Amino acid sequence: MSISVGGLISGMDTENIISQLLEIERKPITNMQQQQADYTVKLNAYGTIESGLKSIRSAARNLDAVSDLTSYAASSGNTDLLTADAMDDAVTGTYSVTVHNLATVHKVKSSAFAPDEVAGAGTIHLKIGDASALDISVDVNDTIANIAEDINNADAGVYATVIYDGTNYYLTLTGQDTGEDNVINLTVTETGTDPADPENQDTTGLSRLVYDRGITENLTQTQNAEDSLISVDGIDNIQRSTNTIDDVISGVTLYLKDEDPLSPLTVSVNRSDTLFTSRVNSFLTAYNGLVDTLKNLQLYVPDTQETGTLFADSTTRRIDQQIQGLIARSVPGAEAGFANLTNLGITTDEDGKLTMDASAFSRKLTEDFDAVADFFTASTSGAEGFAVKFIESIDDILNTDSGTLTVRTDGIQDSIDDMDEQIERLQARLTNTEHRLKAQFVSLEILLGQYKNVSDSLTSQLDALSNLSSYVAKGK
Hints:
This protein is α+β, with helices and mostly antiparallel strands. It folds into three domains: about 1-80 and about 270-460; about 80-105 and about 225-260, no CATH class; about 105-225, Immunoglobulin-like, CATH 2.60.40. The chain is built from nine helices and 21 strands. The chain has helices spanning about 15-60, 65-70, 145-155, 275-295, 315-330, 360-365, 370-375, 385-400, 405-475, and strands spanning about 70-75, 80-85, 95-100, 105-110, 120-130, 135-140, 160-165, 170-175, 185-190, 210, 215, 220-225, 230, 235-240, 245, 250-255, 265-270, 300, 305, 345-350, 355. It has a five-stranded antiparallel beta sheet. A hairpin with a 5-residue loop joins strand 5 (about 120-130) and strand 6 (about 135-140). The longest helix is centred in the C-terminal third of the chain and has 72 residues, at about 405-475. It is flat.
């Protein structure tokens, strides 16, 4: 329970006096809390640097192996017939390809149905190729529109549609997958019959929808299910079930668009600079982001005396210098003309940011792709490539035990934690001081009250004596 001190006897504003005394006592706590706030701002600033370093490291990891940089592009001599993509495992070369036949889906259609004509009750047994049959129930009042809806809902590998020609309706079925193995097959069991009953193959009732290839074909085939057929470099009769073929030319996917047995075309596979250039640009973007961060944190404006959060900070300056040294570094043992970023058309502008001359970089790749790749990826100890060395250096900075940034941030955090303990002790002492001061002022008020009582009593007695003396004097 807190003690209230009113100063009723002394007339002093004792609460204010105590408050001012405590404010003096609280000064060390306030100073430490402000210092903690300053430290926290620095920790956040170091966190921004850490994030920037991790972004650069991530970008550099896309440049430290030849497999990260090598990509291929495939082109077709006739994109109306075929297009192509090349994967990372492609091989440079040219191939003569002839598209003899496209893979197609199977299509069938029913005979004409009048508007609102029911199809007949029973069960449709629908399957694709050698797959298991899927049973679809047909009620006595179902039309072919109802049947189409049920087939689509059954996810049987078939698209069902009803087409209206202005007079009659037709049920059409289209296989979802191409290839001669994906033939649509429908048999039925009409209500009240056995599966082998001839009524299930005639052209009345539900049996009108039967398509059992080569046996009972009450539906009309409008497109046969066929495989694609191509020739590659004189190798004929290459047959696949789809028009997307990725297992004929190593690392190349062919997309068949049209067929023309009389028009061979050329598929060319060449190494592409796109991936390499894109990944270098991603590194430059990450690096330039860190440059901006370090510049803002170390800012100093002479005219206004404005400073950044980490102005004159030795750790930040050391990291900045280390990163700049990596950028200017030449790779030991690299081929002449391919030893540093400047050789590759990558230079530092007046703001300290890296810019790429895309044409110059492309020329270097054309001149000697392997030499450019080695500049980034060389792994020889003491002669590490640019990306390899960059990763190693940033790993050192961010090392969770001994890294430059870790040591600094851990030290700041330890200081914050120590101050928390000191503040806790000072706060406890301040609370005790407050209680002691209030108790002392209460005691003072009590003592002054006692003195006042004595004073009032003496005054009263003196007044009485004075009155008595006056009375006696008048009596004489």
